[in-house]
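Before relying on records like the one below, remember that each one covers exactly one chain. Contacts with other chains, cofactors or solvent are not represented anywhere in the record.
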Amino acid sequence: MAEGTAKLTDWIQAKVNPIAVKIGNQKYLAAIRDGMTAIIPLTIIGGFSILLASPPIPTGMKATNFFFAFMLAWQKWATANANVLMVPYNLTIGLLAPYVLVAITYYLSKHYKMNLVTNLVSALFAFFIAASPSETVKTIQYLPQADLGAKGMFGAMLIAIAVVEINRLFITHHWTIKLPSSVPSGVAAPFEVLVPMVVTTVIFVALNAICVATTQSYLVGVIYLVFAPFANVSGTLPVILLLAVLAKTLWFFGIHGDNMIGTIVTPITTLNIALNLKQYQAGHAMTHIFAGAFYSVWGGWITYPAFLIAMILIARSARLRSLSKLAPIGTLFNINEPLIFGIPTVLNLWFFIPNIICTVLNLTIVYFLTLAGVVGKFYIYTPWTTPGILQVFLASMDWRNVVLWIAILIMDILISLPFIRIYDRSLQKEEGLTPEAA
């Protein structure tokens, strides 16, 4: 058995790990991953802005106690100051696509060691062309906010990559205006990108005109329509579970599974939470379950606290008892590396099995309860270090999620107890103790 496991591990490390490394280092995926990470502070600011402007108060609430009176006073204050309070939301999540474009352009340009400013200017110009109706060019009065917000994210990703690659193609082949070497680089750089920028302008003006003529939608909107089915499918329970099991399996073999799936998951969950927030702000029913930290907060960010509590309750081996004292602070703030590498969970079936069981059960239960409207959907992005029990409330402003989080935690503890007990006994034997004597 041990020999078979060792062979499988060697095969995984030899065959799968190089693929994982290549995916993690793939220039476009890496730029998207890093770019989406860079805009997280904006989504947090925008989320709390709309929370201040639109407090979650049910219809018919009366000031029968101090808390209800406070909530109604908050609502009155928010209504009176809505225009001011909504400014951060309108300029963050309401304009999410340009920020995504800038961040991805930056990281891809940095990868190629290209001039950052000229690429950023080129990409922004191309994006505004692709998000503009013809009357904008004539009157220069407005740009459609729908294509500048969350729905424009996919267009921003593709346009950022396309513009940088066009610029790189022209610069690499020297199809540019070259000024004498005596000219300062700051002066020469804009001329170097002039020819590819002209080509980019022609391409995107033509594509946008074709899209408007054939679909009555701008290029950015058409790109969203193409990617929308993929985004919707990725939010279904089977896909969520598949990604979760894949991530846990990769972790079992020592590969950072969350980084692997993060490139796929993060753009989708960011788009979904932005759409939920927009629907909430408009007073409409939210439609996306797989939004924000849904996967993380109901996955590893609750299973590892369950493992830790189970260890505190029953562990007698020196290793697990030491971890039980060292890991709580980190685990409270979703920093699980002390447990992952201290237990360790790599190649450890006694933690892999309950991890898979708990994660699948957690996500399935929460998914259907959310679908049924028993608990609220996530529409506010919170910092990833926010403790889970607090995060499920802040992300949804629904106290029922807190009750569900506690219930799920207890379930995970009960599931993991027998597995941890067996592993703890094996550690006791390695330490020269017996379960009876410990």
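The two ends are 28 Å apart (CA to CA).
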